[in-house]
Amino acid sequence: MSSKRSIVWLILSALPFILNLLGTSPAANSKTLFISGATKGYLAPCGCTKPMSGGIRRRATLINQLKKPGDFVLELGPFAGPLGRQSEIKAEAQAQALREMGTDAFTLTKQDLQLGTGVIESYTRLSEATLIDNTTFLTTPDWIITSDTNAENQTDTITIARSLISQSSGKPAILVTQSNEESAEQIARALPELSLIIYASSSNPAGVAKRVGKTWIASAGDQGKYVLTFTFTNSGFESPSVFDLGPDITDNPTVSRQYSQYLGRLRAEKLVERMPKPRDDHYAGSDACMSCHTTEHQIWTDSKHSQAWATLEADGHDADPDCVSCHSVGLDSTKGFLVKERTPHLTDVGCESCHGAGYNHIQAPEKVKMPTVGKNSCTPCHNLAHSPNFDFEKYWEKIKH
Predict the structure, then answer these.
(1) Do residues 293 and 285 touch, judged by C-beta distance below 8 A?
(2) Which CATH class name applies to 26-257?
(3) Is the previous residue joined to 78 through a cis bond, with omega within 30 degrees of 0?
């Protein structure tokens, strides 16, 4: 952490205490609405671009540092990743973290609903938070909130919002929608009675909040990378602040223990071994290429690709299906990576991660040719979600052969 960022974080952490000593504590005349989430299964920062943001461990630290009595913590959906056993385990781990950070309510999306009522009921029970969907209008002493969980289109969303306004009894009305920014603006123009619209976006939310008439529209980003806060006073909601959950924020100890337990469950249930393998491409491992491609193999050995598995082991993610696919060779093949103990030659980002299965080529190099590869070989792992600043031309210079 840089000294400048350390000082900023120290001042931020101490601010509520300082204000209280001065007799101007915000607890006396304002409340804060914390908004975060759209986690999409990313319980921890993930990617090759540094510094990485996000994670439930950092989020718990930030919210617990800043939250004061009377504040409200809202978690946005979707919380789930792809359907499957891992998402079910993730849901429980995330719900426990939400309880640790004192989450008051959460919203769902259609993606979450696909996990089934059992998972959602468990999520609700473990988080001790109130579920908000388009059939539930949560009224607090300060405002009323709903979500367009089951909306099929913008017309449905506006209908839900009208019903929210009709039940608000003059309280500020907050709508959480899966609509984008443009649609949120249209809703604000159609229903100026709304005080706040939270819309869905994958962009960094810093500086994007705006007012349409008297209605604030804002996003909290996604993958749990940010926390958006609105201060609420007698005058209504004030301009929001955005906190980037970067590495300068330490991990919450309790949630860190919960996260370790989550990783332990993945290992105990052997989810990597249970992953479907729809292909039967035969992989040989990078060392099998060395006898004919000595120079190329040395370039690979000197690259970070050859250390990819070690980074997983260092973080305890070597039994995490979300990570293993990009840190091993041929995970989706019956003749590819299984587990390290059985296929140690297929760990790391190897030659065949880009060039494809090479066993048949090694057996008959003149007859079976390997395909030419390029940028498209990189983007399955170096995608926008994991490597937002990936520049093929720049990084190719480091590994070209």
Answers:
(1) no
(2) alpha beta
(3) yes
For residues 29 and 12, give the distance between their C-alpha atoms in angstroms, rounded to a whole number.
19
Taken as a whole, the chain contains a residue count of 401
Which positions ≥6 away from 95 have C-beta within 8 Å? 122, 123, 124, 125, 126, 127
Instruction: Please enumerate, as own/partner, the contacts of 233-239 that have beta carbons within 8 Å and a separation of 24 or more.
Output: 233/29, 233/30, 234/29, 236/172, 236/195, 237/33, 237/172, 237/195, 237/196, 239/209
pTM exceeds 0.85: yes
Which CATH architecture does the domain made up of 277-399 adopt?
Answer: Orthogonal Bundle (1.10)
Contact between residue 382 and residue 390 where contact means Cβ atoms under 8 Å apart? yes
Q: Which residue has the tokens 């337990």?
A: 261
Q: C-alpha angle 226/232/234, rounded to 5°?
A: 170
Closest listed residue to residue 30, CA positions, set 17, 18, 16: 16
Per DSSP, 328 falls in state B
Over residues 71-86, the pLDDT tens digits come to 999 999 999 888 899 9
Bridge-based pairing of strands 226-233 and 105-107 is unpaired
Any bridge partners for residue 147, and if so which?
A: 176
pLDDT tens digits for range 154-174? 999 999 999 999 999 999 999
Task: Please give the Cα distance from 92 to 99 (Å, whole number).
Answer: 11
89 in Cβ contact with 265 (< 8 Å) = yes
Domain extent listing, the chain:
26-257, 277-399
Other CB atoms within 10 Å distance of the CB of residue 379: 13
Q: How many angstroms separate the first and last alpha carbons of the chain?
A: 36
What one-letter code names the amino acid at 147?
S
What's the rounded Cα separation, in Å, for the pair 33 and 138?
Answer: 14
- In the predicted model, is pLDDT for residue 51 greater than 60? yes
As a whole number of angstroms, the distance between CA 228 and CA 35 comes to 5
Smallest CA-to-CA distance from 279 within 336, 218, 340 is with 336
pLDDT for res 4: 52
Residue 348 DSSP SS3: coil
CA dist., res. 129 & res. 380, Å (int): 36
DSSP 383: S
Identity of the amino acid at 285: G
Over residues 139-156, the pLDDT tens digits come to: 999 999 999 999 999 999
Cα 175 → chain centroid:
22
